[in-house]
Design goal:
With about 160 residues, the protein is α+β, with helices and mostly antiparallel strands. The protein is built from five helices and seven strands, in the order αααβββαββββα. It has a single domain (about 5-155), classed as 3-Layer(aba) Sandwich (Protein Transport Mog1p, Chain A).
Length: about 160
């Protein structure tokens, strides 16, 4: 798991106990795999035949969020913590992007995937999209942004 997301998990429970009184409204009760039909996710990211070979897997993020793992893309919804973005900025190469959510940042992870962080009011949406052989950040970016916008519409 990415170090920034590990920090998010470590830091979230105290925040939920102290500052956030309605964790269910921010991510704990959301089932990420149910936000969009699987076929729509595939279409938005231009998924290939591998996408159809494995079912998506829903996983809780502690008691404060949820994730859905599809072949080639992972989606997470949890409460927004500024420390998550601050930690990502320390890594460098965090690109602010417009046109999705209240604020968004894109990062090309050297491990071979695009990471998009999106703040939606008090929620935080993250997408991690594999950059496969013959692909670049530029080639997967439109799908990542389209998927993020579709998810943001469901989360508002």
């Amino acid at each position: 798991m990415d170090a920034v997301l590990a920090d998010q998990q470590r830091d979230a429970e105290p925040v939920l106990r102290g500052e956030v009184h309605h964790a269910a409204d921010l991510g704990a009760e959301i089932k990420v795999c149910e936000l969009l039909p699987r076929a729509e996710v595939k279409k938005l990211i231009n998924g290939n035949q591998v996408f159809d070979m494995m079912a998506p897997e829903e996983e809780p993020l502690g008691n404060y969020g949820s994730s859905c793992n599809y072949p080639g893309v992972m989606i997470q919804v949890m409460p927004f913590l500024q420390s998550t973005i601050d930690g990502a900025r320390k890594r460098g190469r965090l690109e602010p992007v417009s046109g999705v959510g209240d604020e968004a940042w894109l990062y090309e992870n050297p491990a071979g995937y695009a990471e998009l962080y999106v703040r939606i009011d008090k929620r935080f949406l993250t997408l991690q999209r594999d950059i496969g052989m013959g692909q670049t950040l530029a080639s997967v970016r439109p799908g990542v942004m389209a998927l993020a916008n579709a998810l943001v519409a469901r989360l508002r």
